[in-house]
Amino acid sequence: MLPTSNVTEFIFLGLSSKQEVQRVCFVVFLLMYTAIVLGNSLIVLTIKSSKSLGSPMYFFLSHLSFVEICYSSTTSPKLIVDLLVKKKTISLEGCITQLFFIHFFGGIEIFLLTVMAYDRCVAICKPLHYMTIMSQQMCRLLLGVSWMGGFLHSIAQILLMFRLPFCGPNVINHYFCDLLPLLELACTDTYFIGQLIVVNGGSLSLISFGVLLTSYAVILVHLRGHSKEGRQKALSTCASHITVVVLLFGPCIFIYMRPSTTFSVDKMVAVFYTVITPLLNPVIYSLRNAEVKNAMRKLWVRTLKQNEK
C-alpha cells in the first residue's frame, strides 16, 4: 500500500513548454526510439542466429541489447506521447511503477557492463583458461546475478519511496518519474531518505565504475608485454565497451552521487542515459566490430535468399 496521500496523479513539465519545440522533439524522439528498438533487436537477432558469435562476450551483448530496449521503453513512449498533449499526467501508481522499472533495467545494465568488463579481463589476461572460466554455466550464473542485482537495487529504492506521503503540489519538473524530483514533492522531511538513495543508487554507479576502471587497468598492465599488433587487437575489443560505459556512468554518477536537489540541466543529462546510450549501443558495437558486421551481412544475405524462394 502507498502511504496516505492527497495526490492521485502527477503532472510532468516535460522537456519544453514551447509547442514548436515539442513538435520537433516528437519527430526526433520518435525516430530515435524506433532506431533503439530496431538497432538493438538486430543485434539480438544477429547474435542468436550466428554460430560465429557464440562466445561469452556476445552472449552478454545480446542480453545487454535486450535490456537497452526494455530500459528505454520505460520512458521514451510516454515522453513521445506527452509531446503531443498539453497536460502531461501520470497516476501515482503509474509513477511508482515507472520508477521501479527504470531502476530495475538500469541496475541490470550496470551489472551487465561490469560482467562484460570481467569477461574481457579474463579473455585477455587468461586466454588459455578463458572458455573454462567463462563456461556456459558461469555465464548464466553471472546473467542471473545481474538480473537479481537489478531487482534488489530497484526494490530498495521503491521501498524508500513507499514511505513518502504526497500532499501537493504535484508538478514534476521532469519528463519521467525519478527519485530526486519526487523527493522534492513529498510533504515530510526527506533528508535521511535522500542520503539512503545516494548510498543505494550513487554508490552502485560509483563502485561499479571503479570495478570497471580496475578491470581495464589490469588489462593495460597485462598488455605491456604484448606486441604492438597484439595490444591493438586486444584494445579494439574493449574500445566499444569503454565508450558505452563512459556514456552511461558519467550522467548516472552526476545525477545520483549528490545531495537530494535537482538542477535544470538534469533533464538533458537524463536524456543521455535513457535515450542516447541505448541508441548508440547498436551503432558502437556493430560499426566497431568486424565479427558483428560480417554476421549481420550474412544474416541479410540469408534473409534475401529466403524471400526470393
UniProtKB/TrEMBL annotation:
Q: Which GO terms describe its cellular component?
A: plasma membrane
InterPro entries per record = GPCR_Rhodpsn, GPCR_Rhodpsn_7TM, Olfact_rcpt, Olfactory_Receptors
* Cellular compartments annotated: Cell membrane; Membrane
Membrane-crossing segments per the record: 26-45, 96-118, 139-162, 204-223, 235-256, 268-287
Keyword Nuclease recorded: no
In its UniProt record, a GO molecular function of this protein is:
G protein-coupled receptor activity
G-protein coupled receptors family 1 profile domain span: 39-285
Membrane topology note: Multi-pass membrane protein
Q: What Pfam family does this protein match (any one)?
A: 7tm_4
Protein name, entry field: Olfactory receptor
